[in-house]
Amino acid sequence: MAARIGALEAGGTTLVLAVGDAKGNIKEQISMPTVEPERVVPEMAQWFADKKVDAIGIGAFGPTVVNPNNPDFGKICFTPKPGWSYYDFLGNMKAGCDVPMGYDTDVNVACLGEATFGCAKGLDSVCYFTVGTGIGAGVMVGGQLLHGMLHPEAGHILLNKLPYDPGNSVCPKHTCCFEGLASGPSIEARWGAKAVDLADRDEVWELEADYIAQAIEIYVTCYSPEKVIIGGGVAHQEQIFPMIRKKFLTYLNGYLSTKELDDIDNYIVPNSLNEKQGILGCLELGRRALEG
Amino acid sequence: MAARIGALEAGGTTLVLAVGDAKGNIKEQISMPTVEPERVVPEMAQWFADKKVDAIGIGAFGPTVVNPNNPDFGKICFTPKPGWSYYDFLGNMKAGCDVPMGYDTDVNVACLGEATFGCAKGLDSVCYFTVGTGIGAGVMVGGQLLHGMLHPEAGHILLNKLPYDPGNSVCPKHTCCFEGLASGPSIEARWGAKAVDLADRDEVWELEADYIAQAIEIYVTCYSPEKVIIGGGVAHQEQIFPMIRKKFLTYLNGYLSTKELDDIDNYIVPNSLNEKQGILGCLELGRRALEG
Questions:
Q1: At CB < 8 A and 24+ separation, what contacts does A236-244 make?
Q2: Mutation for B interface: A181, A211, A218, A268, most B CBs within 10 A
Q3: What is the domain partition of chain A in residue ranges?
Q4: Interface test with A, best of B105, B224, B227, B228 (most A CBs within 10 A)
Q5: I need a surface site. Which of B179, B188, B235, B280 has the fewest CB within 10 A?
């Protein structure tokens, strides 16, 4: 009988739980709000135990400790979310459902989902980032998700704030980081309306595309990915992709020459799995945990 | 009998050849200028063949193809160095000395040297960069050197050019990249003297430290390394390290909190192996190639 794999995509707002198989077929899925962990983690663990899953893959909001060699592996770091700071997420899940578990960040598992089932299938060096309420990057290097001291926090790279930008960084820590200048809240603060209601305002997307292009120049020179995938609300604004690609090539200015860059329309792309890249990545992470 | 391992550090100016053992003991070493490959590669291969080495590790100047899955693995990419563009470096070395060979960039092998024998021994996530004639980064992630489409070209990340900087980028491609603003030639162009002759000019090192600190903010948020190591001529200017650490912490502004960052004097450090990190990394790369 095929293994039953649990998938838990733990976002900052919503928790998505699913059961599926190693081929990416989801059989059942529920969701619940991300309230205090004491109220919701035992309930989630019980749900997976009731489903008799053989393994679970967890993609958690960060910052969190994802390096298995770290004694704090599976714990959430300091966070403004009530009750979650220093919470032993993985340990408490295991306490309620003792099966092999994979544990990584929400954006790393989304990257894994795209590399396993989506537009990066077959590639082993992939950069995925999401531009929404926040900006976060998931990175695969040589087939493995990038861990280190912690995990990428590449939404907080410093960019060049453009002189004609009428807004300011909304990041409380940085005056010119990517998240501060280009996240959904920064768009809303700058233009006085939500991004979805600004679709026909060219100046909004020209500016947004410029910051995203700067960030991709940095990601490409740092990670040398075989593909760059953009998720989050911005990826729904199809008109932005040609702008991003053009501005990125201008910033790179021919410094690198590869067959991937020659095919820029397939190099910088929107996410491909209809917002299921995260939960499918959790499934793959669970499968890998079962394999050991 | 212990394996005899060949090491070839192929820099843009000098080629260093050595024979040693897996423990990092170098028995013999020679060097020669980096002239056209047809004149020097067969001679180097013969030298290693005469020494009866069991394997060779090669650290090559970039850009070059370091991903073993790429059909062009071991070839140099376009380069201004006469004769080297698209040269099959690894193939021609094998033609003259058919032993297992590891092949990577000069900065990746320096990173490997530090992670195997130097100040990053025992760590598996390390960022090494050299600030000299150019700026290049070598990166270890999860114990493996970072490869992808190509390799890191993280000397060309875009930085914020400071308003009080009296100079301009010397990079022909980028108006504000790290190499353009902070390499040895940029220091010389800006201040009218070589870096080594400017040791007592505080403003030189304050500015240099700022660009390096900006770059480290980006490397730390992108790679999440357990240690950041600086090599090249700048690492000889000991007075710059306290400035770099202070400015880096200002740029990061408390966004991340880890035990490594709490010990900042041991987090951002100069290279530790007395300029032998590259050739020792080649030795380790050769050892890994022998193990297969």
A1: A236/A196, A236/A270, A237/A195, A237/A199, A237/A205, A238/A270, A239/A199, A239/A205, A240/A205, A240/A208, A240/A209, A240/A212, A241/A268, A241/A269, A241/A270, A243/A205, A243/A206, A243/A209, A243/A213, A244/A209, A244/A212, A244/A213, A244/A216, A244/A268
A2: A218
A3: 5-106, 119-270
A4: B224
A5: B188
> Superfamily assignment of A119-270 in CATH?
ATPase, nucleotide binding domain (3.30.420.40)
CB contact under 8 A, B78 and A124: no
Q: Is A108 on the interface with B (CB under 8 A)?
A: no
**Quick one: closest CA in B to A178, which residue?**
B218
Helices (H), chain B: 37-50, 89-96, 106-117, 178-182, 184-191, 202-223, 240-252, 259-262, 277-291
Query: Which residue among A160, A254, A256 sits closest to B160, beta carbon to beta carbon?
Result: A160
Contact yes or no for B135/B179 (Cβ under 8 A): yes
Q: Do B224 and A150 touch (CB under 8 A)?
A: yes
Restricting to A residues 193-232, those with a Cβ less than 8 Å away from any Cβ of B are 214, 217-226
Distance between CA atoms of residues B204 and B187, nearest Å: 8
Distance CA A227, CA A261 (A): 9
A187-217 per-position pLDDT tens digit: 999 999 999 999 999 999 999 999 999 999 9
What's the CA gap between B184 and A59, in Å, rounded? Answer: 43
Nearest residue, CB atoms, A253 vs list B148, B174, B258: B174
Class of domain A5-106: alpha beta
Strand pairing partners for B101?
B56
Q: What is the ipTM of this complex?
A: 0.96
Q: Residues B257-260: contacts with CB within 8 Å, 24+ apart?
A: B257/A77, B257/A78, B258/A149, B258/A150, B260/A149, B260/B226, B260/B227
pLDDT of amino acid B23: 96
Neighbours of B284 (CB within 10 A): 22
pTM (predicted TM-score): 0.97
| Cα A154-B245-B158 angle, rounded to 5 deg | 40
pLDDT at B2: 86
Q: Which of A63, A148, A225 sits opposite B149 (nearest CB)?
A: A225
Q: Which of B217, B213, B214, B159 is nearest to A159 (CA)?
A: B159
Question: H or E stretch including B270?
Answer: strand B268-270
